[in-house]
Design a protein that fits this description.
By secondary structure, the chain is an alpha/beta fold. It is built from ten helices and eleven strands. The strands form three sheets. Strands 1-10-7-2-5-3-4 form a seven-stranded mixed beta sheet, with helices on both faces. Strands 6-11 form a two-stranded parallel sheet. Helix 1 crosses helix 2 (48-60) and helix 1 (18-44) packs across helix 3. The longest helix has 27 residues, at 18-44.
């Protein structure tokens, strides 16, 4: 059974509200910088001792993003999936800022009504958890580190009922995020398959229609000087720097506010996975091929509903 859901408690097939997307965009563009700036002010000002106390807290609490995080109590994530199992959701595509994943799995009350019994954990880059104060905010929303130990911690729940949400394409895929793009960076990404096998976590393909429509990006074809610079910076820093733009508040020509485009996140049927602590390369390849098949099928069955032309299909690279 396939389920479609939006980030607020409304009938299925509704669109993510523009305000939810805006909250995500501005949170990650501005809030992280504001938190770091505030921390610097504390260090340089008369309240330096507060910064020292927070540094002590940061040291003592450093492992929390890798051990399940610390979400706010009002975020009750439940599920229609069998709560006796753990799940690994593969989210596609990355887009520029993964707005659909945040809107649906971290701020949405519809997840609890659609999937009672499952607690979702959105895995994001570890670097965000080194940002003073901002780390508290993202953990309160249910986000945790994307490190291997963090994913293992979530999927190692013997009672079941946990779902790791991993944006499979990662930073590399964000450089392809632009309107009309259907290219997914997935052929070489098999670590999530191995993780699912080791923990016996059922795989769930997820495709977010409209994710790439929120922003335009400066042309950066492979082989161009800009793409080469972006890829080198990605290797050094661990995250990509797509040069994106969209609209302004009072005009539609240029700005950083996302275009008024709906995001419809479609959750596919789970792929049963038997636990295998030492999977062979062949077993990993077979499950990876099956996952790609199910992901493509999910896209093909729903693309017409969300305005994708019949002749267009996913491109795996």
């Amino acid at each position: 059974m396939k389920v479609e859901f939006a980030p607020i408690n409304v009938p299925l097939k509704r669109r993510i509200q523009t305000v939810a997307v805006l909250q995500w965009i501005f949170s990650f563009l501005l809030l992280a910088e504001c938190c770091c700036g505030f921390f610097v002010i504390l260090i340089l000002g008369n309240f330096w001792f507060l910064a020292v106390l927070y540094l002590l807290w940061l040291y003592l609490d450093w492992e929390t993003p890798c051990t399940g995080g610390r979400r706010s109590q009002w975020l009750i994530k439940t599920s229609d999936l069998n709560p006796n199992h753990n799940y690994l959701f593969g989210f596609h595509p990355h887009g520029v800022l993964v707005a659909g994943a945040f809107g649906n799995f971290c701020t949405s009350s519809s997840f609890s009504s659609l999937f009672p019994g499952i607690t979702p954990y959105l895995h994001i880059m570890p670097i965000w958890f080194g940002c003073p104060f901002f780390r508290e905010y993202i953990m309160s929303a249910g986000m945790v580190s994307a490190s291997k130990e963090s994913v293992s911690y979530v999927l190692n729940n013997k009672e079941g009922g946990h779902a790791s949400i991993i944006v499979i394409g990662g930073a590399e895929e964000s450089l392809n995020a632009r309107p009309g793009s259907l290219t997914l960076s997935i052929l070489k990404r098999k670590g999530f398959i191995k993780m699912a096998l080791k923990h016996g976590a059922h795989l769930v393909p997820v495709f977010s229609f409209g994710e790439n429509e929120l922003f335009k990006q400066v042309a950066n074809p492979k082989g161009s000087w800009l793409r080469n610079v972006q890829e080198k910076l990605q290797k050094i820093m661990g995250f990509a720097l797509p040069l994106f733009h969209a609209r302004g508040i009072f005009q539609y020509s240029f700005g950083l506010i996302p275009y008024r485009q709906p995001i419809n996140t479609v959750v596919g049927s789970p792929i049963p996975v038997k636990q295998n602590l030492n999977p062979t390369t062949e077993e990993i390849e077979q499950l990876h091929a099956l996952y790609l098949q199910k992901l493509r099928k999910l896209f093909e069955e729903h693309k017409g509903t969300y305005g994708i032309p019949e002749h267009k299909s996913l491109i795996f690279e």
